[in-house]
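User: For a benchmark we're assembling, each entry needs the component sequences followed by a predicted structure for the full assembly. Here are entry 17's components. Please fill in the structure.
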Amino acid sequence: MIAHDHAGHDHAHGGAAHGSLKGYLIGFVLSVVLTAIPFWMVMTGAIDNKQATAVIIMAFAAVQIVVHMIFFLHMTPASEGGWSMLALIFTVILVVIVLSGSLWVMYHLNANMMPGLHEMRQMP
Amino acid sequence: MASTAITAGAEPVFHLEEEHAHAEGGSTMLGFWLYLMSDCLIFAMLFAAFGVLGGNYAAGPAPKDLFDLGLVAVNTTMLLLSSITYGFAMLTMDKGRVGATQGWLAVTMLFGLTFLSIELYEFAHMIHEGATPQRSAFLSSFFTLVGTHGLHVTFGIVWMVTLMVQVARHGFIEANRRRLMCLSMFWHFLDVVWIGVFTFVYLMGTLR
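Assistant: Structure for entry 17:
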């Protein structure tokens, strides 16, 4: 980071923004483990209960996303003076609303509409 | 923000010291991050569509009949390896080693191309078996979501080639460093999206 300092003040994306070799390697090893376990679980059917498997692999995905954010994207509460984190939190809130809202509403639509559809299909 | 008083005669004049001292491109990284967040929303919509429609097979093929998890695992490995090699490219950039950075960028690009080839092979295979995007709502949403990700990877590779030419021509000038850092964020972000794809589309699809 040579040329970043001439502005006279710290933009907080200099210094450790690129991470270190150790950081990348830790992130990589964690990602490999966090990817391999869900694949192994689904491919071998290690747990008989499908719902439990789904919950576990979703948890693994969530942890792996955090690992990538920290070790590869170098997110810290301080990067860009906190604005990166703020944008991320805002996005996560939107994503959660969109995903849970869509699934919830459409599930109920399906549940309520489907019997009607079946009746229609049986009509001559 | 420290304000300083400069005495001009008897009247003190106050101004913000940092007001006009922004380096060129000083806000690029934050701006690019905001772009990535909006991209994240695009993917959220596609994931929501897949979540809603992913079970509507229209008596067509189901994920279990179509997905080859071994191939997806290889694909995931390719993307993960390309992430770490891009990390190495950034580390060698910090040390100012142009040749090493170009080498790592080339390796990253090869992994990215392998990923794309495998994905295109998978798509071609599915379409050959009659599992086209028009077949069912599940397949439409599948091709849209995974295809959009693949398109991002394609543009990432185009961008990477462009930057390799730029670095070869001008070396590590400030603008090139900034561009490489933006591409770094883009590339790692695509890997994050892929975590969602392989978990929700491939693994949970196979579980269904």
